[in-house]
Amino acid sequence: MSAVNTEFVEGFGGAKLAVHRIGAGRPLLLLHGLFSSAEVNWIKYGHAAQIAEAGFEVIMPDLRAHGQSAAPQEPEAYPHDVLVTDLQAIVLALGLSDYDLGGFSLGARTALKGVIAGLTPRRLVLGGMGLEGLVKWGGRSAFFLDVIARYGTIPRDDPAYFAQNFMRSMKIDPVAAKLLLESIEGAGIEDFAAVTMPALVVCGTEDRDNGSPHALAEELAQGVLAEIPGTHMSCVTKRELGVEIARFLAA
Q: What distance in Å separates the CA atoms of residue 220 and residue 16, rounded to the nearest whole number?
């Protein structure tokens, strides 16, 4: 297996963003989920290596306030949709023109918003995402803002306990995370007209955290659905996630 190489590019406001790369071939830009990292979402369980073996260079940024990327605590570092601005900066910095784009959960939302903002990948992968998580983002956002507000005090029997522990294990800065979530705001995505490319919706059979993946696939002009074992959290550990992404991109 080839090694993962890490470099840094500048995002909005000069923030240093870590970008991890593995493999050679057609570029695939993959974005991780909230409170996670490229390492946990894509590298640790072998998905990146599996996709690389199918003939791709897998390019995995750590989002602002995550992983090895900068986590500024100043409100001005988090304008509306700063993750989309960062994504556009990464595409430009790496000189990507003919590439594929994907993400999991918040990464999927960011990838889709990037397309709506003008990015033109050949194919799009939306992991861990359903229609409601896009059109009614406010509910998901409010849940995580509550986790941050009560961080360190959430008891074991609370539904937010697992998210608190994940934040702690990933060493997420609550101040930066709150600013980041507020930059996404509660607005839903109403217009999918820009998503004209083939799009894979890949979701765990027990994962409805972001609503219906079936409804999302139907909403997209060339949407296809692949279901894999697991919940929103556990499906990331399953080999099938990498298998389905590689299969879709290589088709």
A: 34
